[in-house]
Amino acid sequence: MRELVARGHRVTYAIPEVFAEKVAETGVEPVPYRTTLPSPEDDPSAWGTTLLDNVEPFLDDAIQVLPQLIEAYEGDEPDLVLHDITAYPARVLAHRWGVPAISLSPNLVAWEGYEEEVAEPMWAEAKASERGRAYYEKFTDWLAGNGITQHPDPFLGRPARSIVLIPRALQPNADRVDETVHSFVGACQGDRAAQGDWERPAGAERVLLVSLGSSFTKQPGFYRECLKAFGDLPGWHVVLQVGKHVTADDLGEIPGNVEVRDWVPQLAVLKKADAFITHAGAGGSQEGLATATPMVAVPQAADQFGNADVLQGLGVARHVPMEEADAAALRAAVLALVDDPEVRRRLAAIQREMAAEGGTRRAADLIEAELPGEGEPPAR
Prior knowledge:
Layout: H1 2-6, E1 12-16, H2 20-24, E2 29-33, H3 51-72, E3 81-84, H4 88-97, E4 101-105, H5 114-128, H6 130-145, H7 152-157, E5 162-164, E6 182-184, E7 206-211, H8 220-230, E8 236-241, E9 258-261, H9 266-270, E10 275-278, H10 282-290, E11 295-297, H11 304-313, E12 317-319, H12 327-338, H13 341-356, H14 359-370
Parallel strand pairs: 1-2, 3-4, 4-5, 5-6, 7-8, 7-10, 8-9, 10-11, 11-12
Helix pairs in contact: 3-4, 3-6, 5-6, 8-12
């Protein structure tokens, strides 16, 4: 968004009220709305445990957000809509206004055969249930009420235009992705100065960052295993990010070579780190690749399991399931990765490939090309 603003575009950003101040720092104009989704402060259990638990809140929220945004943009309709993959009202609004829409995907996109290979088996049980049928009926009725006859599945999974904010290396079956629709631009890291910096301790021979992201961080037992694995390991300094639901007091005695934080400027740490234990979210995975940092992937939810397998398949990470992530397994995985020259070689090659994908500037070029009245578009 900063890049688009810097190029002279007026950018408004429809956003839950809690994030309005944060997005305003980029130079955009926040358009706050009320949301019913769990907040970052809520316990992760608020998202439930089943597939329908995970998706129903997004539909319910979309239904109540749409009229708020219709009113907010009355008489000030945009020329183009950019939207997250879960921002259902955005595509409805683009249809209502008759303007192009671009999906900004922070994780993998559907390839040819995705529905048969992944979506249909994943959804079979839910679709056969009364609750699942009610969900689809509600979704279909909402779309129809807004003039959209498309089935909910392609409405969500098959956008007309998509900019993919992950490197192509992280995309499963990348050779089967329609790149006339989906453009991979890789890491759009932007200016992180506002997040602060991190200094590597002078005596640290090696640095390990441990982070399970921002949502599924309530894992005190896992963090204690990390302390057992790396506490007082000669030459190592450990940065342990535990989130807002765990404190240092929950972990017992903290070894002298470990700093426990509720949050860290992750990219700044990774630029100076030698290894990364991650939940394998899309953001963390690509930051690990962009900084050529070997990773131990301990996925927690959603796309993270697939990301972990992709990273391991690339030869730059080890996938350690949560139930197997004890001190011995974590220590063995980290030490094996950092001592392997082939891992370093593969990370360096991927880092070069990512740099060539264009990042923020190419994403902005592609967005500008979709604006009505623009000239010859750049290569997708």
